Amino acid sequence: MLWVRSGLGRHMPAGPAAAGYPMPSSGMLGVTELDADRRAMLAAARRHLAPDGQLIVEWYPPAWFDAAASGQGGRLGEVAIELADVVRDGDLLSATVHYAARGRRWHQEFTCRRLDLDGLLTSADFAFDRRLTPDRAWFSVRPRRMG
Q1: Distance between CA atoms of residues 86 and 64, nearest Å
Q2: What pTM does this model have?
Q3: Quick one: pLDDT at residue 29?
Q4: Which of 17, 52, 99, 100 to pair with 79, CA 20 to 30 A apart?
Q5: Nearest to residue 58, comparing CAs of 126, 111, 115, 1?
Q6: In terms of DSSP bridges, do strands 73-76 and 126-131 run parallel, antiparallel, or are they unpaired?
Q7: Cα–Cα nearest to 56, from 6, 113, 14
Q8: What is the per-residue pLDDT for 67?
């Protein structure tokens, strides 16, 4: 999942995103199977970031790919989450996530790819900034060059 915050600049409209609130992208880097699509999403994020901007990224660390299994789950606030139908094929992992809250249930099927994060960020002109969570799932990057 890809989020942009703070320092959004010249191309972003006024509103919640410009005020520093997270704005979801139109896609997810690890869930995008085609390298060209992944590069295009990062290039678009880079174009929309002000020189002092910051890109907030959620990703699945490599250890997650090794440990992910059907039946794993937990809670995110009031939402119960469970992983199901986990299938690995090389660097791809496909699964279904089941969600439940307030008597409602829904699910999301996805396929994600184990990424070479350093190469991906460098090719998009981003430099690693810092980890944002202890589980290493969220981190920030900044433009490598100003402007």
Answers
A1: 12
A2: 0.65
A3: 53
A4: 17
A5: 1
A6: unpaired
A7: 6
A8: 92
Burial of residue 58 (number of CB atoms within 10 Å: 0-12, 13-18, 19+): middle
In this structure, which amino acid lies at residue 77? G
What is the SS3 string spanning 1-69? Answer: CEEEECCECCCCCCCCCCCCCCEECCCCCCCCCCHHHHHHHHHHHHHHECCCCEEEEECCCHHHHHHCC
Q: Using DSSP, state whether 122 is helix, strand or coil.
A: helix
Tokens of 146: 């100003």
Check pLDDT > 80 for residue 88: yes
What average pLDDT is seen over the chain? 77
Nearest to 92 by CA among 114, 72, 71, 120: 114
Write down the residue that tokens 């070479």 correspond to: 116
